[in-house]
Amino acid sequence: MIKTRITEAFGIKYPILSAPMGPFYTTELTVATSEAGGLGVLSHATLRGKNSIEDFKAQLEYVVEHTDKPFGFNVRTARVQTDHKILLRKIPDWCKKNPKLQEQLVYGLTSAGGPRKAAAMWQKKAPDMYHFHVGPALWLVDKIVESGCDGVVATGTEGGGHQSYEKVSTLVLTQQVAKKYPDTMLVSCGGYASPEGVAAGLAMGADAIAMGTRFIASNQSEFHPNYKALIPPATARDTVLTTGGFGPIRLLKNKYALEHGKVISKEEKIAQEMAYNMDEYLEDLYRYEIVYTKGDVDDGAIPVGQTCGLIDEILDVDDIISTFTKKAEEKLKNLCSNIS
Ligand SMILES: Cc1cc2nc3c(=O)[nH]c(=O)nc-3n(C[C@H](O)[C@H](O)[C@H](O)COP(=O)(O)O)c2cc1C
User: What DSSP line would sit under 208-259, residue for residue?
Assistant: First the structure.
């Protein structure tokens, strides 16, 4: 058994987290991941066309009805994610009223915007919940640590979904963060989809690793079968960085991604956001919705990481978590036994 600061603090068996994957739903995936002994993380999902605040609450309640294990959630604090301020405030209130939520919701992950508001609010309203923020480059990790977060999710450019403009690899970033902030809990994310990856992440100083694409291609995730089916045959060269709602985004190369154009500069993106109107926002969301509801994998947006080049079959979540960790342990033991 591998014990880390995160397995101990969160009360989980294996040092593996499911990465959040909004706007898609990962409610079933969260239950399956936590049941398997990892930490399932609910996404900031917005595709059901309902009130997103009530919908989030319903998902939290669903999870505690289906598992007694610890779990977490993501809130995207981006400017254009307009429901985030209400969620930051309401989630601790819901916990106070529901003892199961209070006990099981151990991890709140913010991303895509700043960590400060959440850090200040949760330190007061949810002092027992661990607050982590996604950091894609060391200078941004400096800000996360300054803001008082309990931990960092160091996410490199090979990962699926939204990316920063920084383009730093997980390999470099994880080592930088582990070296500069040895006392801060660290999740390494982006590029993990194998036991060898788990072993490498832990060896670099991570307390856990998080995987997104590997879990999409699982029997328990609620992604459309057409989406899942694209992952095993895809190679590591089949993704492309283009412009998404919050900046650069890594998508599978399909008709939509190739027509969508290149990554625009940060300045252009900010100008675009300022001029953003509801029609554009809805058009953007529609691209995810048609994948989610109809499995339209030509005209829809398909976020995946370069890890699709490592994945060649759909697996059970239970298998991914327990087998990967056990094999990672063997790899690390073998390595140690070679040291004279
Ligand atoms: C479909 C999809 C949606 C994503 N949505 C989010 C999100 O809402 N919030 C977030 O912090 N990261 C999001 N990400 C990034 C993941 O949390 C994680 O960094 C990424 O999946 C890691 O790379 P991997 O897919 O190769 O494991 C998304 C990734 C994918 C593949």
Answer: EEEESHHHHTBTTS-S-HHHHHHTTT--TTSEEEEEETTEEEEEE-SHHHHH
Residue 143 lies in a domain: yes
Indicate which atom in ligand 1 lies nearest the CA of residue 304.
Answer: 31
Domain identity same for 175 and 281 = no
CA–chain centroid gap for 188, Å, is: 11
| Dist. CA 330–CA 309, nearest whole Å | 23
Residue nearest ligand 1's atom 6 by CA:
21
The pTM (predicted TM-score) of the whole model is 0.95
**Residues near ligand 1 with C-beta < 6 Å?**
19-22, 24, 43-44, 74, 76, 111-112, 134, 155, 159-162, 189-192, 211-214, 303-305, 307
pLDDT at 277 over 70: no
Write out pLDDT tens, residues 152-183: 999 999 999 998 888 999 999 999 999 999 99
Q: Are residues 267 and 180 in the same domain?
A: no
